[in-house]
Write a structure and sequence with these properties.
It contains three helices and four strands; from the N terminus they run αβαββαβ. By secondary structure, the protein is α+β, with helices and mostly antiparallel strands. The protein has one domain: YbaK/aminoacyl-tRNA synthetase-associated domain (YbaK protein). The longest helix has 11 residues. The protein is globular, with a radius of gyration of 13 Å. The relative contact order is 0.20.
C-alpha cells in the first residue's frame, strides 16, 4: 500500500484499519506502509502528528519520532521534496 498524508481516507481505513494517518503505523504489523518523509521535516527538532484519529495533535521531538518508528518496525525513507511540490509553495 502506498499512501501519503492527504490521501483518500479509504486507503488508510482499508489498508490498516484507521480513520486518518498520523500515528497509524502502530497498526501496520504487516509493514504494508512505507514511511516517507521530506528531509526538511525529518531534520526539524519536532513534528506534529495525529494519534490515530484526526481530532487531536501531538508534538514529537525528533528522538521520539525515531523511537516510535523503531518500535513499529518502520525505517524512514528520507527524501528531498522539490519546493514546487510542497503544498504551501514554500522553499
Amino acid at each position: 500500500m502506498t499512501a501519503v498524508a492527504g490521501t483518500d481516507r479509504a486507503l488508510w481505513r482499508d489498508g490498516i484499519g484507521v480513520f486518518g494517518q498520523g500515528m497509524a503505523l502502530v497498526n501496520d504489523a504487516a509493514r504494508a506502509v512505507e514511511f516517507v518523509i521530506d528531509r526538511a521535516l525529518w531534520d526539524a527538532p519536532a513534528v506534529q502528528a495525529h494519534p490515530l484519529v484526526n481530532d487531536a495533535t501531538m508534538v514529537l521531538t525528533h528522538a521520539e519520532l525515531e523511537r516510535f518508528l523503531a518500535a513499529t518496525g518502520h525505517a524512514p525513507r528520507v527524501i528531498d521534496v522539490p519546493a514546487a511540490a510542497r503544498a504551501d509553495g514554500s522553499d
